[in-house]
Amino acid sequence: MKNKIPLSSLPIGAKGEVELIMVNGLLRRRLLDLGVVPESVIEVIRVSPAGDPTAYLIKGSLIGLRKIEANQIFVKQL
Amino acid sequence: MKIEKASPTDIVLALAGNPNTGKSTIFNALTGLKQHTGNWPGKTVTNAQGHFIHRGKPFLLVDLPGTYSILANSPDEQVARDFICFGKPEATIVVTDATNLERNLNLALQIMEITSDVVVAVNLLDEAERKGISVDLSKLSAELGVPVIGTIAREQKGLTELKDIVDDIVMKKLQLKPYQIRYSAGIEERINQLSLKLEKILRGKINARWVALRLLDGDETIIESIEKYLLPSSIDLRGEIASW
Ligand SMILES: Nc1nc2c(ncn2[C@@H]2O[C@H](COP(=O)(O)OP(=O)(O)OP(=O)(O)O)[C@@H](O)[C@H]2O)c(=O)[nH]1
Ligand SMILES: [Mg+2]
Known about the structure:
The structure holds 2 protein chains of 2 kinds. Chain A has helices spanning 25-34, 67-70, and strands spanning 4-6, 15-21, 41-47, 54-58, 61-65, 73-77. By secondary structure, chain A is an alpha+beta fold. Chain A has a single domain, classed as Ferrous iron transport protein A (FeoA) (SH3 type barrels, Roll), CATH 2.30.30. Chain B is of the alpha/beta class. Chain B is built from 10 helices and 6 strands; from the N terminus they run βαββαβαβααβααααα.
């Protein structure tokens, strides 16, 4: 439990392993479809000039997630 | 969703897959047309359609937008889903990226929940080889219960075999038994209850189990699409469902 942090708090260049997806409904479905599943590894690539969304590398594709989305994904920093 | 058949005997095929997996490259190779291709996702936004002849039969191929899902969270997903569900393709080709099968198969499994007339093309096999990935195509086919063809679309490799298999599917020469995800006992029970009621209204026009799953998912868009494409306006599906 102690090293579980929101994906949104990882710095650029860091990688995290997904532990928990604290969201339901359509957004959960979308995240699962994108490959955000427990144990998958996500890398923070860059933040858009406006500060939101952030681009993440998820299973080989660059995918933009908004902060409110990334706040609800809990990872273990690698 | 307008289907431009050149003749009423055209056999309609859908080309689905994750973004950037080579769908349009396959589409162009088969039809001789020039759909936009390139190395970034989201190029194909509407349903491009083209014709080809194989084994003496006319086929109409529809290039769908790339999606990670057909559970309709976005307009692209809804276009792809509506075509697969309501465009009545006689076979659906799911184009997958050999270097990224895990996520690509998510979409393949979703499509296999709707229709059994599916062939999986494992494309970009050259890229996979470069990355040291080898794909056991026959084992994948045995596990999925549908034909799996390896392709390198950019070099036109595997495409004749793909057309052969598509024709075999359309001609019902193959025994397809697509892998079906089983849910927990409680959910399966709800699916069965709903399917029985839905079947009385849908009458085989669409897979009732799949519609039941969408309703349990809380997907409202499927009701609208069914009313729009499948049912006479005298039937109020939403009202029916609300009364259950
Ligand atoms: N190396 C290699 N590249 C390929 C192959 N098939 C397609 N490509 C390339 O992959 C890129 C994407 O191909 P497209 O056909 O545009 O992909 P798409 O699935 O239609 O993409 P969207 O419409 O954006 O979803 C292009 O640069 C193609 O040239 C292949 O088998 N091997
Ligand atoms: Mg395309």
